[in-house]
Amino acid sequence: MFDSSSSTESEDFGDQNTIKVVLLGSTGVGKTAIVDRFVKNVFNQNTKVTVGSAFNTKPIKIGKQEFHLNIWDTAGQEKFHSLAKMYYRDAVAAIICFDITKQESFLECSRWRSELQESGSPDILLTIVGNKTDLEGSRTVKLEAAEKWAQNNDCVYLETSAKSGYNIQEIFDQICVRYANNNQSWENSEKKIKRGFELNEKNNLSPNTNQLRSTNEKDGCC
Ligand SMILES: Nc1nc2c(ncn2[C@@H]2O[C@H](COP(=O)(O)OP(=O)(O)OP(=O)(O)O)[C@@H](O)[C@H]2O)c(=O)[nH]1
Ligand SMILES: [Mg+2]
């Protein structure tokens, strides 16, 4: 079951840098808006509820290296819950989203995490995203609480706004960088992302890639 706007086929670029990414989280937190902002650079105030899932693809260039992201935006509504699990299989990266103005959506992250553990790879690159920072005045989820959750669950935490575009690109950039750092064939080769993000042998990326991005800009890259 898919949104009519989506393709049913995942794209295989025949490239070792193809990364399957799945977004999950409660309904209304902004998963589709995040993907729309990232893929099409648009924001729609009246997005339709996702039915089943929606598929999108986008290449990212970091330094000289190209990555192809196959992005599965799953439905947060309860009635589609059992369907969402089939998209976790073979996912290299997962993004659990919540709405910083909705405490309940944050509390539900633990349930999404458990489901991912049941059906996804144990090595999945996990990111937790607190979306809607443009509504800071209505925030009910404390930054410290979300950061602690991320620490306890060994993942990166980013706050974003699909509306303003804040940190949206960073979500996907840091996934590519972590992927590259984990990938044995990359580690065995010369540093391939020299002019962009350096390979980080200790794999201890800063949760916010703005820092990395500014290093990038200083190098005159991309
Ligand atoms: N103010 C604000 N509104 C947002 C933001 N992101 C999404 N929204 C709005 O939140 C509502 C729900 O967004 P969706 O992207 O459809 O949420 P979803 O998580 O995909 O929901 P499901 O498809 O039901 O799982 C829409 O009205 C969006 O316009 C944001 O960053 N800021
Ligand atoms: Mg949606």
UniProtKB/TrEMBL annotation:
Gene3D superfamilies linked: P-loop containing nucleotide triphosphate hydrolases
Protein's UniProt keywords contain Nucleotide-binding: yes
InterPro entries: P-loop_NTPase (IPR027417), Small_GTP-bd (IPR005225), Small_GTPase (IPR001806)
Stretches the record annotates as Disordered: 202-222
Polar residues compositional bias, start-end: 202-214
SUPFAM superfamilies membership: P-loop containing nucleoside triphosphate hydrolases
Superkingdom, natural source: Eukaryota
Record flagged with keyword Nucleotide-binding: yes
Swiss-Prot/TrEMBL keywords: Nucleotide-binding
GO MF: GTP binding; GTPase activity
Listed PROSITE patterns: RAB, RAS, RHO
Protein name: Ras-related protein rab-5c
